[in-house]
Amino acid sequence: MQGILLVDKPAGWTSFDVVNYVRKIVATAEGKKPKNCKVGHTGTLDPLATGLLVILVGKEYTRKAAELTKQDKTYEVTMKLGVTSSTGDEEGEKTVVSDTTPPVEAVQEALQKLQGHIMQVPPAFSAMKINGQRAYKLAREGKTVELEARPVTIYSNELTDYSYPSVQFTSKVGSGTYIRSLVEDLGTLLDTGAYMTGLRRTTVGPYDISSATEPSTLTQESLTAALVL
After folding, report:
1. pLDDT per position as a tens digit, 87-145
2. CATH class of 73-204
3. Which residue stretches of 70-197 are H helix?
């Protein structure tokens, strides 16, 4: 079994959960042990996030993971103004910053300022490595995590809804961009603070969420039929 499988990851599932789930189906179909089946993905999604996860099935495709990871992505983002989070999302410790309600023009201006080639500091709770250890592991241990700003590309930020304190926008970004950092930078520009409350990935390179399958509905037959070669 070889190919690319587009999965609509539900909230609460880790990317590894999806890979493991698919691997077991592949193993059953091929009469192998799961550990002997090559299944991977082209970029993680946080457990709280939903949307497009590109799964690679078979050795021919998993060996292409590095090149397929470096693709542009589109996200539907929801953030809350006035409050920050220690993790940049719903899971962290919240701190109230401001009760000021920015006008919609200010929100649109902030979104426009954070477009193009910009410098971005990855969140402390990320998979970035510091001296060989994941940043999130150090952060959870209460250690100070200092990550350097890196160049990223944000092609567009389009406001889709604003009802204070909630802001919804669609962001098309280059590989390596952290949406939680983008949200925090928006909160800083607006002098209100902000954290991400919702995230859905809708495209990865040429692949679109409209062609994705929910993992819980997969069977040997439907998985085989859904593989893109």
Report:
1. 889 988 999 999 999 999 999 999 999 999 999 988 765 455 555 555 445 445 555 55
2. alpha beta
3. 104-113, 135-140, 179-189
- The count of C-alpha atoms lying within 13 angstroms of the C-alpha of 1, restricted to the half-sphere facing its C-beta, is 28
Residue from 200, 126, 192, 211 nearest 169 by CA: 200
Please state the pTM of the whole predicted model.
0.90
| Residue numbers annotated as active site | 46
Q: Copy the structure tokens of residue 214.
A: 């929910």
- Tally the residues of the chain: 229
Rounded-to-integer distance, Cα 124 and Cα 84, Å: 14
Classify domain 3-69+205-226 at the CATH class level.
alpha beta
User: Would you give the DSSP letter of residue 217?
Assistant: G
Please count the other Cβ atoms lying within 10 Å of the Cβ belonging to residue 56: 23
Contact 122, 176 (CB under 8 A): no
How far does the chain reach from its first CA to its final CA, in angstroms? 10
d(CA 183, CA 127): 18
Q: Domain boundaries in the chain?
A: 3-69+205-226, 73-204
Q: Do you find a cis peptide bond into 123, omega within 30 degrees of 0?
A: no
Q: Please say whether the beta carbons of 80 and 195 come within 8 A.
A: yes
- For 96, the token pair is 């109230």
